[in-house]
Protein backbone atom coordinates (compact mmCIF):
# COMPACT_ATOMS: atom_id res chain seq x y z
CA UNK A 1 0.00 0.00 0.00
CA UNK A 2 2.81 2.35 0.89
CA UNK A 3 4.54 1.79 -2.47
CA UNK A 4 1.23 2.30 -4.31
CA UNK A 5 0.64 5.57 -2.42
CA UNK A 6 4.12 6.83 -3.34
CA UNK A 7 3.48 6.08 -7.03
CA UNK A 8 0.20 8.02 -6.97
CA UNK A 9 1.92 11.00 -5.30
CA UNK A 10 4.67 10.91 -7.95
CA UNK A 11 2.10 11.00 -10.76
CA UNK A 12 0.25 13.95 -9.19
CA UNK A 13 3.42 16.01 -8.59
CA UNK A 14 4.64 15.33 -12.13
CA UNK A 15 1.36 16.46 -13.63
CA UNK A 16 1.45 19.70 -11.55
CA UNK A 17 5.00 20.43 -12.64
CA UNK A 18 4.15 19.82 -16.30
CA UNK A 19 1.08 22.07 -15.98
CA UNK A 20 3.06 24.94 -14.39
CA UNK A 21 5.85 24.55 -16.95
CA UNK A 22 3.50 24.63 -19.92
CA UNK A 23 1.57 27.69 -18.67
CA UNK A 24 4.27 29.91 -17.10
CA UNK A 25 7.86 28.79 -17.24
CA UNK A 26 8.06 27.40 -20.80
CA UNK A 27 6.53 30.44 -22.60
CA UNK A 28 8.75 32.77 -20.60
CA UNK A 29 11.97 30.92 -21.47
CA UNK A 30 11.09 29.85 -25.00
CA UNK A 31 8.58 32.25 -26.62
CA UNK A 32 6.72 30.88 -29.64
CA UNK A 33 7.96 31.87 -33.13
CA UNK A 34 5.88 34.61 -34.84
CA UNK A 35 3.48 33.63 -37.51
CA UNK A 36 4.66 34.45 -41.05
CA UNK A 37 2.70 37.47 -42.43
CA UNK A 38 0.62 37.27 -45.54
CA UNK A 39 1.90 38.91 -48.79
CA UNK A 40 0.00 42.17 -48.18
CA UNK A 41 1.43 42.54 -44.67
CA UNK A 42 4.97 41.86 -45.89
CA UNK A 43 4.71 44.71 -48.42
CA UNK A 44 3.51 47.08 -45.71
CA UNK A 45 6.32 46.13 -43.39
CA UNK A 46 8.95 46.64 -46.07
CA UNK A 47 7.65 50.11 -46.99
CA UNK A 48 7.46 51.18 -43.37
CA UNK A 49 10.89 49.87 -42.50
CA UNK A 50 12.78 51.63 -45.33
CA UNK A 51 12.88 55.14 -43.76
CA UNK A 52 14.06 53.71 -40.47
CA UNK A 53 17.24 52.37 -42.04
CA UNK A 54 20.35 54.20 -40.71
CA UNK A 55 23.15 54.32 -43.29
CA UNK A 56 26.54 53.26 -42.13
CA UNK A 57 29.40 55.79 -41.84
CA UNK A 58 30.88 56.39 -45.28
CA UNK A 59 27.81 55.02 -47.03
CA UNK A 60 26.84 57.29 -50.00
CA UNK A 61 23.32 57.29 -48.61
CA UNK A 62 24.61 59.06 -45.51
CA UNK A 63 26.13 61.83 -47.64
CA UNK A 64 22.90 62.27 -49.54
CA UNK A 65 21.00 62.66 -46.28
CA UNK A 66 23.40 65.37 -45.03
CA UNK A 67 23.43 67.18 -48.37
CA UNK A 68 19.62 67.32 -48.36
CA UNK A 69 19.68 69.03 -44.98
CA UNK A 70 22.42 71.55 -45.81
CA UNK A 71 21.89 72.18 -49.52
CA UNK A 72 19.13 74.72 -49.09
CA UNK A 73 20.99 77.31 -51.18
CA UNK A 74 22.99 77.29 -54.42
CA UNK A 75 26.61 76.31 -54.05
CA UNK A 76 29.57 78.62 -54.66
CA UNK A 77 27.74 81.65 -55.96
CA UNK A 78 29.78 84.79 -56.72
CA UNK A 79 28.29 88.29 -56.66
CA UNK A 80 29.80 91.75 -57.19
CA UNK A 81 28.64 95.29 -56.56
CA UNK A 82 30.03 98.61 -57.72
CA UNK A 83 31.71 98.87 -61.11
CA UNK A 84 35.06 98.39 -62.81
CA UNK A 85 34.60 101.54 -64.93
CA UNK A 86 35.96 104.82 -63.50
CA UNK A 87 33.33 106.86 -65.32
CA UNK A 88 30.57 105.03 -63.40
CA UNK A 89 31.18 107.16 -60.32
CA UNK A 90 32.15 104.21 -58.12
CA UNK A 91 35.57 104.04 -56.53
CA UNK A 92 35.41 100.34 -55.63
CA UNK A 93 34.41 97.02 -57.14
CA UNK A 94 33.56 94.54 -54.37
CA UNK A 95 33.19 90.80 -54.94
CA UNK A 96 31.63 88.24 -52.59
CA UNK A 97 31.35 84.47 -52.32
CA UNK A 98 28.43 82.48 -50.97
CA UNK A 99 30.74 80.23 -48.91
CA UNK A 100 30.54 82.10 -45.64
CA UNK A 101 29.22 85.23 -47.43
CA UNK A 102 32.73 86.70 -47.24
CA UNK A 103 34.47 89.48 -49.17
CA UNK A 104 36.56 87.75 -51.81
CA UNK A 105 38.03 90.85 -53.45
CA UNK A 106 37.95 94.66 -53.41
CA UNK A 107 39.46 96.53 -56.35
CA UNK A 108 40.33 100.22 -56.55
CA UNK A 109 38.90 101.56 -59.81
CA UNK A 110 40.87 104.82 -59.97
CA UNK A 111 43.52 104.36 -62.72
CA UNK A 112 46.13 105.99 -60.47
CA UNK A 113 46.03 102.97 -58.18
CA UNK A 114 46.75 100.26 -60.71
CA UNK A 115 48.60 97.01 -60.16
CA UNK A 116 52.35 97.64 -60.49
CA UNK A 117 53.07 94.28 -62.11
CA UNK A 118 50.11 94.61 -64.49
CA UNK A 119 49.60 98.35 -65.05
CA UNK A 120 46.41 97.84 -67.04
CA UNK A 121 44.77 95.95 -64.17
CA UNK A 122 43.12 97.67 -61.17
CA UNK A 123 44.76 97.13 -57.82
CA UNK A 124 43.17 94.52 -55.54
CA UNK A 125 43.41 96.10 -52.12
CA UNK A 126 41.83 92.94 -50.63
CA UNK A 127 41.78 89.40 -52.00
CA UNK A 128 41.53 85.80 -50.85
CA UNK A 129 45.02 84.49 -50.14
CA UNK A 130 45.76 80.88 -51.09
CA UNK A 131 45.82 78.48 -48.15
CA UNK A 132 44.71 81.22 -45.74
CA UNK A 133 42.62 80.04 -42.82
CA UNK A 134 40.75 83.34 -42.60
CA UNK A 135 38.96 85.55 -45.13
CA UNK A 136 37.87 89.18 -44.98
CA UNK A 137 34.78 89.66 -42.76
CA UNK A 138 34.51 85.92 -42.15
CA UNK A 139 31.85 85.35 -39.49
CA UNK A 140 31.34 82.49 -37.06
CA UNK A 141 28.68 82.03 -34.37
CA UNK A 142 29.81 79.39 -31.84
CA UNK A 143 26.23 78.30 -31.07
CA UNK A 144 25.51 77.76 -34.77
CA UNK A 145 28.86 76.07 -35.39
CA UNK A 146 27.94 73.58 -32.65
CA UNK A 147 24.89 72.56 -34.72
CA UNK A 148 26.90 72.34 -37.94
CA UNK A 149 29.68 70.33 -36.35
CA UNK A 150 27.81 67.04 -36.84
CA UNK A 151 27.86 67.76 -40.56
CA UNK A 152 31.60 68.54 -40.43
CA UNK A 153 30.84 72.13 -41.39
CA UNK A 154 31.02 75.60 -39.88
CA UNK A 155 29.23 78.86 -40.60
CA UNK A 156 32.07 80.20 -42.72
CA UNK A 157 32.13 77.02 -44.85
CA UNK A 158 28.46 76.49 -45.68
CA UNK A 159 26.86 78.34 -48.57
CA UNK A 160 24.54 81.19 -47.68
CA UNK A 161 21.39 82.15 -49.51
CA UNK A 162 21.49 85.22 -51.74
CA UNK A 163 18.45 87.37 -50.95
CA UNK A 164 17.39 88.25 -54.48
CA UNK A 165 14.79 90.82 -53.54
CA UNK A 166 17.45 92.94 -51.76
CA UNK A 167 20.03 92.74 -54.54
CA UNK A 168 20.89 95.92 -56.49
CA UNK A 169 23.91 97.32 -58.31
CA UNK A 170 25.28 98.57 -55.01
CA UNK A 171 23.73 96.27 -52.40
CA UNK A 172 23.88 92.55 -51.71
CA UNK A 173 22.38 90.58 -48.80
CA UNK A 174 23.12 87.01 -47.69
CA UNK A 175 21.19 84.95 -45.14
CA UNK A 176 21.62 81.62 -43.39
CA UNK A 177 19.05 79.76 -41.29
CA UNK A 178 20.32 77.13 -38.87
CA UNK A 179 19.36 73.46 -39.36
CA UNK A 180 16.97 73.62 -36.41
CA UNK A 181 15.30 76.72 -37.89
CA UNK A 182 15.72 78.68 -34.66
CA UNK A 183 18.26 81.31 -35.79
CA UNK A 184 18.85 83.42 -38.88
CA UNK A 185 22.05 85.35 -39.67
CA UNK A 186 22.15 88.08 -42.31
CA UNK A 187 25.09 89.94 -43.80
CA UNK A 188 24.41 93.02 -45.89
CA UNK A 189 27.04 94.84 -47.98
CA UNK A 190 26.63 98.17 -49.75
CA UNK A 191 28.59 100.73 -51.77
CA UNK A 192 27.84 104.24 -52.93
CA UNK A 193 29.10 106.46 -55.72
CA UNK A 194 31.41 109.39 -55.15
CA UNK A 195 29.42 112.21 -53.51
CA UNK A 196 29.21 115.65 -55.07
CA UNK A 197 31.05 117.24 -52.13
CA UNK A 198 34.82 116.59 -52.20
CA UNK A 199 34.91 116.41 -48.40
CA UNK A 200 32.63 113.35 -48.57
CA UNK A 201 34.85 111.49 -51.03
CA UNK A 202 35.85 109.02 -48.28
CA UNK A 203 32.35 107.52 -48.36
CA UNK A 204 32.97 106.12 -51.85
CA UNK A 205 35.95 104.18 -50.45
CA UNK A 206 33.88 102.62 -47.67
CA UNK A 207 32.09 99.28 -47.93
CA UNK A 208 29.00 99.28 -45.76
CA UNK A 209 28.62 96.10 -43.72
CA UNK A 210 25.74 95.07 -41.45
CA UNK A 211 25.37 91.80 -39.54
CA UNK A 212 21.97 90.85 -38.10
CA UNK A 213 21.08 87.91 -35.83
CA UNK A 214 17.40 86.97 -35.50
CA UNK A 215 15.75 84.55 -33.10
CA UNK A 216 13.16 82.50 -35.02
CA UNK A 217 12.55 80.02 -32.21
CA UNK A 218 10.26 79.90 -29.20
CA UNK A 219 13.08 79.97 -26.66
CA UNK A 220 15.29 82.99 -25.77
CA UNK A 221 18.89 82.83 -26.96
CA UNK A 222 22.23 84.34 -25.98
CA UNK A 223 24.54 84.52 -28.98
CA UNK A 224 27.98 85.86 -29.85
CA UNK A 225 29.68 86.17 -33.22
CA UNK A 226 33.39 86.15 -34.10
CA UNK A 227 34.36 88.45 -36.98
CA UNK A 228 37.66 88.38 -38.92
CA UNK A 229 39.33 91.58 -40.05
CA UNK A 230 40.70 92.47 -43.50
CA UNK A 231 42.85 89.81 -45.20
CA UNK A 232 44.95 89.88 -48.36
CA UNK A 233 46.38 93.38 -48.68
CA UNK A 234 49.08 93.75 -51.38
CA UNK A 235 52.81 93.90 -50.71
CA UNK A 236 54.67 96.14 -53.14
CA UNK A 237 58.39 96.13 -53.90
CA UNK A 238 58.85 93.28 -51.47
CA UNK A 239 62.68 93.35 -51.61
CA UNK A 240 62.94 97.10 -50.87
CA UNK A 241 59.91 97.89 -48.71
CA UNK A 242 60.40 98.66 -45.04
CA UNK A 243 56.71 98.41 -44.19
CA UNK A 244 54.59 95.28 -44.56
CA UNK A 245 51.13 94.35 -43.24
CA UNK A 246 50.93 96.14 -39.92
CA UNK A 247 47.94 96.00 -37.59
CA UNK A 248 46.55 99.48 -36.94
CA UNK A 249 44.14 100.10 -34.06
CA UNK A 250 42.58 103.28 -32.72
CA UNK A 251 41.51 102.99 -29.08
CA UNK A 252 38.91 105.21 -27.41
CA UNK A 253 39.46 106.39 -23.85
CA UNK A 254 36.45 106.97 -21.54
CA UNK A 255 36.71 110.68 -22.41
CA UNK A 256 36.70 109.96 -26.13
CA UNK A 257 40.39 110.65 -26.76
CA UNK A 258 41.76 108.57 -29.63
CA UNK A 259 45.03 106.66 -29.08
CA UNK A 260 46.50 105.03 -32.19
CA UNK A 261 48.61 101.88 -32.02
CA UNK A 262 50.63 100.07 -34.69
CA UNK A 263 51.98 96.51 -34.44
CA UNK A 264 54.30 94.94 -37.02
CA UNK A 265 54.17 91.23 -37.96
CA UNK A 266 57.59 90.72 -36.34
CA UNK A 267 56.26 91.96 -33.00
CA UNK A 268 53.08 89.89 -33.34
CA UNK A 269 55.11 86.77 -34.11
CA UNK A 270 57.31 87.24 -31.06
CA UNK A 271 54.21 87.73 -28.93
CA UNK A 272 52.75 84.53 -30.37
CA UNK A 273 55.94 82.57 -29.67
CA UNK A 274 56.01 83.87 -26.10
CA UNK A 275 52.26 83.20 -25.61
CA UNK A 276 51.54 86.91 -25.25
CA UNK A 277 49.01 87.42 -28.03
CA UNK A 278 47.67 90.97 -28.06
CA UNK A 279 44.05 91.07 -26.90
CA UNK A 280 42.14 94.20 -25.96
CA UNK A 281 38.82 94.95 -24.34
CA UNK A 282 39.04 98.70 -24.96
CA UNK A 283 36.38 100.30 -27.22
CA UNK A 284 37.63 100.87 -30.76
CA UNK A 285 37.33 103.76 -33.19
CA UNK A 286 38.88 101.71 -35.99
CA UNK A 287 40.93 98.55 -36.45
CA UNK A 288 42.46 96.97 -39.53
CA UNK A 289 45.56 96.46 -41.63
CA UNK A 290 47.94 99.16 -42.80
CA UNK A 291 50.46 98.81 -45.66
CA UNK A 292 52.75 101.36 -47.29
CA UNK A 293 50.25 103.32 -49.37
CA UNK A 294 46.85 101.78 -48.55
CA UNK A 295 44.75 100.81 -45.54
CA UNK A 296 41.69 98.69 -44.81
CA UNK A 297 40.02 99.72 -41.57
CA UNK A 298 36.83 98.42 -39.94
CA UNK A 299 34.87 101.21 -38.26
CA UNK A 300 31.88 100.50 -35.97
CA UNK A 301 29.13 102.98 -36.76
CA UNK A 302 27.61 103.20 -33.28
CA UNK A 303 29.09 105.05 -30.31
CA UNK A 304 31.41 102.40 -28.85
CA UNK A 305 31.63 104.15 -25.50
CA UNK A 306 27.87 103.80 -25.01
CA UNK A 307 27.05 100.58 -26.89
CA UNK A 308 30.27 98.67 -27.60
CA UNK A 309 30.04 95.98 -30.27
CA UNK A 310 32.99 93.88 -29.12
CA UNK A 311 33.88 92.26 -25.85
CA UNK A 312 37.45 91.58 -27.02
CA UNK A 313 39.75 92.10 -30.00
CA UNK A 314 42.91 90.13 -30.66
CA UNK A 315 45.62 89.92 -33.30
CA UNK A 316 45.98 86.77 -35.40
CA UNK A 317 47.82 85.51 -38.47
CA UNK A 318 45.49 84.65 -41.34
CA UNK A 319 48.06 82.48 -43.10
CA UNK A 320 48.43 79.01 -41.66
CA UNK A 321 52.20 78.50 -41.48
CA UNK A 322 53.39 75.44 -39.50
CA UNK A 323 55.88 76.26 -36.77
CA UNK A 324 58.49 73.94 -38.26
CA UNK A 325 58.45 75.84 -41.59
CA UNK A 326 60.97 78.67 -41.81
CA UNK A 327 59.54 81.91 -43.20
CA UNK A 328 60.27 85.61 -43.02
CA UNK A 329 57.83 86.70 -40.34
CA UNK A 330 57.64 90.31 -41.53
CA UNK A 331 55.83 89.16 -44.69
CA UNK A 332 53.15 87.17 -42.88
CA UNK A 333 49.46 88.08 -43.15
CA UNK A 334 48.51 89.77 -39.91
CA UNK A 335 44.92 90.72 -39.13
CA UNK A 336 42.42 90.83 -36.25
CA UNK A 337 39.55 88.83 -34.79
CA UNK A 338 36.66 90.54 -33.05
CA UNK A 339 34.41 88.78 -30.52
CA UNK A 340 31.07 90.49 -30.04
CA UNK A 341 29.39 91.19 -26.75
CA UNK A 342 26.74 88.69 -25.69
CA UNK A 343 23.53 89.38 -27.62
CA UNK A 344 20.22 88.67 -25.84
CA UNK A 345 17.52 87.57 -28.28
CA UNK A 346 14.04 87.14 -26.85
CA UNK A 347 11.82 84.28 -28.00
CA UNK A 348 9.57 84.70 -31.00
CA UNK A 349 6.24 86.16 -29.95
CA UNK A 350 2.94 85.94 -31.75
CA UNK A 351 2.29 89.67 -31.27
CA UNK A 352 5.77 91.21 -31.16
CA UNK A 353 7.26 88.90 -33.79
CA UNK A 354 10.94 87.99 -33.94
CA UNK A 355 13.78 89.67 -32.08
CA UNK A 356 16.85 90.86 -33.97
CA UNK A 357 20.14 92.59 -33.14
CA UNK A 358 22.14 94.43 -35.83
CA UNK A 359 25.67 95.83 -35.82
CA UNK A 360 26.66 98.27 -38.56
CA UNK A 361 30.19 98.91 -39.81
CA UNK A 362 32.05 100.71 -42.56
CA UNK A 363 35.09 99.01 -44.08
CA UNK A 364 37.39 101.72 -45.43
CA UNK A 365 39.50 100.33 -48.28
CA UNK A 366 41.53 102.95 -50.06
CA UNK A 367 44.68 105.05 -50.36
CA UNK A 368 46.24 106.72 -47.34
CA UNK A 369 45.36 110.29 -48.20
CA UNK A 370 44.78 112.82 -45.40
CA UNK A 371 41.53 114.05 -47.00
CA UNK A 372 40.13 110.50 -46.93
CA UNK A 373 41.39 109.49 -43.49
CA UNK A 374 40.68 112.67 -41.59
CA UNK A 375 36.85 112.36 -41.70
CA UNK A 376 37.01 108.87 -40.17
CA UNK A 377 39.53 109.92 -37.51
CA UNK A 378 42.35 107.72 -38.83
CA UNK A 379 44.74 110.30 -40.32
CA UNK A 380 47.38 109.41 -37.71
CA UNK A 381 48.10 106.08 -39.40
CA UNK A 382 50.14 108.13 -41.92
CA UNK A 383 53.71 108.04 -40.62
CA UNK A 384 55.42 111.36 -41.37
CA UNK A 385 58.58 110.36 -39.50
CA UNK A 386 60.77 112.51 -37.26
CA UNK A 387 60.53 115.59 -39.48
CA UNK A 388 56.75 115.27 -39.48
CA UNK A 389 56.58 117.24 -36.23
CA UNK A 390 58.03 120.19 -38.12
CA UNK A 391 55.60 119.67 -40.97
CA UNK A 392 58.39 119.19 -43.53
CA UNK A 393 56.97 116.13 -45.38
CA UNK A 394 53.53 117.70 -45.47
CA UNK A 395 54.95 120.94 -46.91
CA UNK A 396 57.05 119.15 -49.52
CA UNK A 397 54.11 117.00 -50.64
CA UNK A 398 51.95 120.11 -50.90
CA UNK A 399 54.56 121.86 -53.04
CA UNK A 400 54.92 118.81 -55.29
CA UNK A 401 51.15 118.70 -55.67
CA UNK A 402 51.08 122.40 -56.61
CA UNK A 403 53.82 121.92 -59.22
CA UNK A 404 52.19 118.75 -60.53
CA UNK A 405 48.78 120.35 -60.98
CA UNK A 406 50.37 123.40 -62.60
CA UNK A 407 49.10 126.92 -62.65
CA UNK A 408 45.63 125.86 -63.83
CA UNK A 409 46.86 125.58 -67.42
CA UNK A 410 50.03 123.46 -67.57
CA UNK A 411 50.26 120.34 -65.41
CA UNK A 412 53.77 119.06 -64.80
CA UNK A 413 54.68 115.38 -64.51
CA UNK A 414 55.93 114.48 -61.07
CA UNK A 415 59.52 114.02 -62.32
CA UNK A 416 59.70 117.63 -63.47
CA UNK A 417 57.82 118.70 -60.34
CA UNK A 418 60.66 117.23 -58.26
CA UNK A 419 63.18 119.22 -60.30
CA UNK A 420 61.12 122.39 -59.81
CA UNK A 421 61.05 121.66 -56.07
CA UNK A 422 64.86 121.31 -56.12
CA UNK A 423 65.21 124.66 -57.88
CA UNK A 424 62.92 126.29 -55.33
CA UNK A 425 64.81 124.85 -52.34
CA UNK A 426 68.26 125.66 -53.74
CA UNK A 427 67.14 129.18 -54.68
CA UNK A 428 65.98 129.82 -51.13
CA UNK A 429 69.29 128.49 -49.83
CA UNK A 430 71.42 130.36 -52.37
CA UNK A 431 72.79 132.96 -49.89
CA UNK A 432 73.94 130.19 -47.55
CA UNK A 433 75.31 127.96 -50.29
CA UNK A 434 77.18 130.96 -51.75
CA UNK A 435 78.83 131.52 -48.40
CA UNK A 436 79.64 127.83 -48.25
CA UNK A 437 81.33 127.96 -51.66
CA UNK A 438 83.28 131.10 -50.77
CA UNK A 439 84.37 129.56 -47.49
CA UNK A 440 85.58 126.48 -49.36
CA UNK A 441 87.49 128.69 -51.79
CA UNK A 442 89.11 130.55 -48.91
CA UNK A 443 90.13 127.31 -47.29
CA UNK A 444 91.81 126.22 -50.52
CA UNK A 445 93.70 129.51 -50.70
CA UNK A 446 94.89 129.17 -47.12
CA UNK A 447 96.12 125.61 -47.46
CA UNK A 448 99.76 126.60 -48.23
CA UNK A 449 99.81 128.88 -45.19
CA UNK A 450 98.33 126.19 -42.98
CA UNK A 451 100.93 123.74 -44.25
CA UNK A 452 103.71 126.22 -43.42
CA UNK A 453 102.33 126.82 -39.94
CA UNK A 454 102.02 123.11 -39.28
CA UNK A 455 105.62 122.55 -40.34
CA UNK A 456 106.84 125.42 -38.19
CA UNK A 457 104.97 124.36 -35.07
CA UNK A 458 105.09 120.61 -35.55
CA UNK A 459 106.50 120.18 -32.05
CA UNK A 460 104.18 122.76 -30.45
CA UNK A 461 100.52 121.83 -31.06
CA UNK A 462 99.21 124.60 -28.82
CA UNK A 463 101.10 127.28 -30.71
CA UNK A 464 99.94 125.84 -34.04
CA UNK A 465 96.30 125.96 -32.92
CA UNK A 466 96.68 129.57 -31.81
CA UNK A 467 98.37 130.60 -35.05
CA UNK A 468 95.71 128.76 -37.09
CA UNK A 469 92.90 130.63 -35.32
CA UNK A 470 94.66 133.94 -35.95
CA UNK A 471 94.98 133.08 -39.63
CA UNK A 472 91.27 132.21 -39.92
CA UNK A 473 90.26 135.34 -38.01
CA UNK A 474 92.32 137.74 -40.13
CA UNK A 475 90.98 136.19 -43.33
CA UNK A 476 87.37 136.05 -42.04
CA UNK A 477 87.23 132.31 -42.56
CA UNK A 478 85.75 129.66 -40.36
CA UNK A 479 86.48 125.95 -40.92
CA UNK A 480 82.87 125.01 -40.10
CA UNK A 481 81.32 127.76 -42.20
CA UNK A 482 80.37 125.31 -44.93
CA UNK A 483 78.48 123.00 -42.58
CA UNK A 484 75.49 125.28 -41.97
CA UNK A 485 73.81 124.69 -45.36
CA UNK A 486 74.26 120.94 -44.91
CA UNK A 487 72.66 121.07 -41.45
CA UNK A 488 69.74 123.10 -42.77
CA UNK A 489 69.18 120.55 -45.53
CA UNK A 490 68.96 117.64 -43.08
CA UNK A 491 65.24 118.21 -42.23
CA UNK A 492 64.56 118.54 -45.96
CA UNK A 493 66.44 115.31 -46.61
CA UNK A 494 64.52 113.35 -43.96
CA UNK A 495 61.25 115.00 -44.90
CA UNK A 496 61.65 114.18 -48.58
CA UNK A 497 62.69 110.61 -47.79
CA UNK A 498 59.56 110.10 -45.71
CA UNK A 499 57.39 111.90 -48.26
CA UNK A 500 58.32 109.41 -50.98
CA UNK A 501 57.68 106.51 -48.59
CA UNK A 502 54.11 107.59 -47.90
CA UNK A 503 53.07 109.44 -51.05
CA UNK A 504 50.56 107.35 -52.97
CA UNK A 505 50.61 110.06 -55.67
CA UNK A 506 54.24 109.17 -56.49
CA UNK A 507 53.34 105.50 -56.75
CA UNK A 508 53.26 104.63 -60.43
CA UNK A 509 54.40 108.11 -61.55
CA UNK A 510 56.60 107.94 -64.69
CA UNK A 511 59.77 109.87 -65.51
CA UNK A 512 62.26 108.98 -68.25
CA UNK A 513 62.72 105.20 -67.97
CA UNK A 514 61.35 105.15 -64.41
CA UNK A 515 57.81 103.78 -64.14
CA UNK A 516 57.46 104.31 -60.38
CA UNK A 517 59.05 107.33 -58.69
CA UNK A 518 58.16 105.90 -55.28
CA UNK A 519 60.42 102.85 -55.84
CA UNK A 520 63.98 102.26 -57.13
CA UNK A 521 64.28 103.02 -60.85
CA UNK A 522 65.08 99.38 -61.89
CA UNK A 523 66.72 100.05 -65.25
CA UNK A 524 66.70 96.32 -65.88
CA UNK A 525 66.03 93.21 -63.81
CA UNK A 526 68.50 90.41 -63.15
CA UNK A 527 65.93 87.66 -62.83
CA UNK A 528 67.38 86.74 -59.43
CA UNK A 529 68.53 88.49 -56.26
CA UNK A 530 72.03 89.83 -56.75
CA UNK A 531 74.05 90.14 -53.50
CA UNK A 532 73.94 93.73 -52.18
CA UNK A 533 71.94 94.88 -55.22
CA UNK A 534 68.74 92.90 -55.11
CA UNK A 535 66.59 91.88 -58.07
CA UNK A 536 67.33 94.87 -60.37
CA UNK A 537 70.04 97.25 -61.49
CA UNK A 538 69.28 100.80 -60.32
CA UNK A 539 71.12 103.50 -62.27
CA UNK A 540 69.99 106.67 -60.51
CA UNK A 541 71.71 105.88 -57.17
CA UNK A 542 75.01 105.33 -59.03
CA UNK A 543 74.66 108.68 -60.82
CA UNK A 544 73.89 110.33 -57.49
CA UNK A 545 77.06 108.95 -55.87
CA UNK A 546 79.21 109.96 -58.86
CA UNK A 547 77.99 113.55 -58.58
CA UNK A 548 78.65 113.48 -54.82
CA UNK A 549 82.25 112.47 -55.51
CA UNK A 550 82.67 115.23 -58.10
CA UNK A 551 81.32 117.78 -55.63
CA UNK A 552 83.62 116.47 -52.93
CA UNK A 553 86.67 116.79 -55.16
CA UNK A 554 85.70 120.30 -56.22
CA UNK A 555 84.92 121.67 -52.76
CA UNK A 556 87.64 120.00 -50.69
CA UNK A 557 91.19 121.34 -51.00
CA UNK A 558 93.80 118.92 -52.34
CA UNK A 559 95.55 116.91 -49.62
CA UNK A 560 98.95 118.32 -48.63
CA UNK A 561 99.51 116.34 -45.42
CA UNK A 562 98.99 112.72 -44.39
CA UNK A 563 96.13 113.83 -42.13
CA UNK A 564 94.35 115.55 -44.98
CA UNK A 565 94.91 112.54 -47.20
CA UNK A 566 93.34 110.34 -44.54
CA UNK A 567 90.44 112.79 -44.32
CA UNK A 568 89.93 112.54 -48.08
CA UNK A 569 89.84 108.75 -47.86
CA UNK A 570 87.30 108.84 -45.04
CA UNK A 571 85.01 111.11 -47.04
CA UNK A 572 85.42 108.93 -50.12
CA UNK A 573 84.44 105.74 -48.32
CA UNK A 574 81.57 107.51 -46.58
CA UNK A 575 80.24 108.60 -49.97
CA UNK A 576 80.50 105.04 -51.30
CA UNK A 577 78.64 103.77 -48.23
CA UNK A 578 76.00 106.45 -48.77
CA UNK A 579 75.64 105.14 -52.32
CA UNK A 580 74.91 101.69 -50.94
CA UNK A 581 72.27 103.21 -48.66
CA UNK A 582 70.82 105.15 -51.59
CA UNK A 583 70.57 102.07 -53.77
CA UNK A 584 67.17 101.09 -52.37
CA UNK A 585 65.61 104.54 -51.99
CA UNK A 586 62.84 105.89 -54.19
CA UNK A 587 63.82 107.06 -57.66
CA UNK A 588 62.23 110.44 -56.94
CA UNK A 589 64.70 110.91 -54.09
CA UNK A 590 67.61 110.32 -56.46
CA UNK A 591 66.14 112.76 -58.99
CA UNK A 592 66.10 115.42 -56.28
CA UNK A 593 69.73 114.83 -55.26
CA UNK A 594 70.96 114.67 -58.86
CA UNK A 595 69.30 118.01 -59.59
CA UNK A 596 70.65 119.46 -56.32
CA UNK A 597 74.20 118.27 -57.07
CA UNK A 598 74.10 119.76 -60.56
CA UNK A 599 72.91 123.03 -59.07
CA UNK A 600 75.78 122.98 -56.58
CA UNK A 601 78.36 122.30 -59.29
CA UNK A 602 76.97 125.15 -61.38
CA UNK A 603 77.13 127.48 -58.38
CA UNK A 604 80.75 126.55 -57.77
CA UNK A 605 81.70 127.18 -61.38
CA UNK A 606 79.79 130.43 -61.81
CA UNK A 607 80.90 132.12 -58.59
CA UNK A 608 83.51 134.86 -59.22
CA UNK A 609 87.07 133.86 -58.42
CA UNK A 610 88.67 135.52 -55.44
CA UNK A 611 91.89 137.39 -56.13
CA UNK A 612 94.81 135.37 -54.88
CA UNK A 613 96.74 137.07 -52.09
CA UNK A 614 100.46 136.54 -52.25
CA UNK A 615 101.17 133.80 -49.80
CA UNK A 616 104.24 135.49 -48.45
CA UNK A 617 102.29 138.43 -47.14
CA UNK A 618 99.97 136.27 -45.09
CA UNK A 619 102.80 134.20 -43.76
CA UNK A 620 104.68 137.29 -42.56
CA UNK A 621 101.59 138.60 -40.78
CA UNK A 622 100.72 135.35 -39.09
CA UNK A 623 104.21 134.34 -38.12
CA UNK A 624 105.31 137.66 -36.64
CA UNK A 625 107.08 137.47 -33.30
CA UNK A 626 108.03 133.82 -33.64
CA UNK A 627 109.49 133.91 -30.18
CA UNK A 628 105.97 133.96 -28.86
CATH topology of the largest domain: Beta-galactosidase, Chain A, domain 5
Tell me what portion of residues adopts beta-strand conformation: 15-25%
Strand adjacency order, main sheet: 6-7-8-9-20-16-15-12-13
Q: How would you sum up the major sheet?
A: 9 strands, antiparallel
| Outline type | elongated
Indicate the radius of gyration in whole angstroms. Answer: 40 Å
Number of domains: 2
DSSP summary, beta strand count = 22
Number of helices: 15
Poorly predicted tracts of residues: 33-68, 611-628
Corresponding CATH architecture of the largest domain: Distorted Sandwich
Mean pLDDT across residues: 77
What is the CATH class of the largest domain? Mainly Beta
Question: Would you kindly provide a brief summary of this structure?
Answer:
With about 625 residues, the protein is α+β, with helices and mostly antiparallel strands. It is built from 15 helices and 22 strands.
